[in-house]
Structure formats: C-alpha cells, structure tokens
Amino acid sequence: MRRVAIIGGETHISEVTGLAGTSLEIVGATVRPDQREWATSTFGAPVFASVAELLAEARPDLVAVANENDLKAEATMQALQAGCDAIVDKPLALTMPEQDGIERFLAQHPAQRLLMLLTLRGNSEYAGLRRVVQSGEIGAPAFVEVRMAVQLKRAQRPPWFLDVNRSGGLFLDLLIHGLDQVEWITGQRIVAMTGVTGNLGDPSDVNLRDHAAVFCELSGGGSALVEGQRMLPDTVGSDYRVLVAGTQGVADLKLGGGVTVSSPAGANLALTDLPEAASVVADWLAGGELTPQAASLRANRLALLATEAAVTGERVVVE
Length: 319
Description:
This protein is α/β, with parallel strands linked by helices.
C-alpha cells in the first residue's frame, strides 16, 4: 500500500481518495483554510499548513495534486523534487515554461512517474468507441467531433475557477479531455490547430470564458473539432458526445446514452459489448498502460497550444 499525501481538495480528488484503504494510505494533506475542516473529516489524516511541511512531516512516496489550477505546476514540482511520484488533476500546468520544466525533470529522473487524471479513458462508452474505431469497422477516421458542455454553476464555483488567469480557460480545464480523446480514439496525432474562445454569457466579466472550440488537423489526413461551453441551462446537467466519421461508416457516442455504429453491417446498431469501466488511478498504480505518462504530458501540451491558437488567432503547428 502506497503512502499518499494530498495537496488541495478540488474536482477529482475522489479518484484518489476512493482507493484509500486498498491501494493507498492517506498520510496527510494541505488545503485552503476554508477547506481545512472538510479535509480533516474527509481524508482522516493530519492537515498541514503548507506543502513543504506536508512533504517533510508526512513522508509520502506519492502525492496527489488537486489544488487551484494556477498552483498545480508548482506543487507538482515540489512533490517531484521531494522524490515522490505524482497524480495530478488536470491541468498539469498553465504555461509552457511550467510544462517544459516538468517534462525536463521527468526526463532526468526516469524512475519517477506522473499521471494526469484523464478520467474519460476509464469510461466504458469511450473505451467502446475507441475499440470500434481502431478495429477498422468504420474504415479510416476522416472526421471527429468532440463535444463537452456543462453548466456554469456560478454560485457553486470558487472565485479562482471563474477567472481565466487562474483556471487557464476551457481548453486547459475542460477540453483537455477532448483533445486527448481525439488521439486516443483514432490512434492519430494532432499536427496543427486553429482555435477560438470567448465569453458570450456575461461580457461584463472580462475574466470569464464560457465557450471554446479548436479545429485540429490529423496526421492521417483527417480533421477533428473539439468544442465545449459552460452555458447549459439548469435543465441540462451536461452534454458529452463524440462522433467519428470514417471512410466506411460512422460511430456515435452520447455519454450515458451508449454508442451506435453505422457500417456496411447495418445502420445505427447499438454497441452492446462495452468494456468494463476502469479507474485510471488504480490502473496506473498497478503499472497498467491505460494512461501512459507520455499521454498525460501530451494532453496538457495540446491544451496549451490550443489556448495559444485561440488567443493569437493563428494556426499553431504541433511538433
């Protein structure tokens, strides 16, 4: 059982805490002052005043980073420099220098490992769609459309989340999953991107971003559109979809509604033999390859480049 320390109590920390008592022993945490009482009762471990104190006193061999987005890269580097492996909620970093620094450290310390929580890789519907596409049933992928739409939930969000300077914007905080899915599902690489982002729901809030889209050129000659927004009405919780059009058919996913396939074998056939859902954390701890370290680093780099494309209005080549 590995000794894990927790930095922050944001979005997907339950992916880690859910394994406490089986694969993981929580030995300490550090959180914002307003989260301290919650963390003490939730984690069942000492809560320290700082990351430095946590690492020195709790002596973990693994650190789970789930704090505010603009603080993740620094906390991750502190964990790595202390000799710990790291599990990081997305995004890993908000700037390219931060990204380069983490990649450089890992290259120089190959015994250490990092996982970013690309949780959709463990979803049975996304895994089923991937299996269909990579089986060749619909031919070579020609076009992919990924949609990720959610409610803004302004009243429930912490202030940092609504500030693009601290959250990083939609590509880094949300559509990072979609960019990863394009490559994971198709087996192709994104080679260039053109993007847009903005704020239509509340233009008076200059730091809010509520929609984004990026057009991607793929290594196989096809293309992909990854789009998302935080403008859904209260009547709709979320709307996640993926469509893959191939040279011989189409595969279509609606999260919670299954996967359908149209190919020479038939039209709109429901995929019934979906793979079992999997925990990306449990797989990584067991040495699995569901989310390789290279994929974690690649997804964050793609999100940074998509943000650059949207901010500059220029086509960005992915090397």
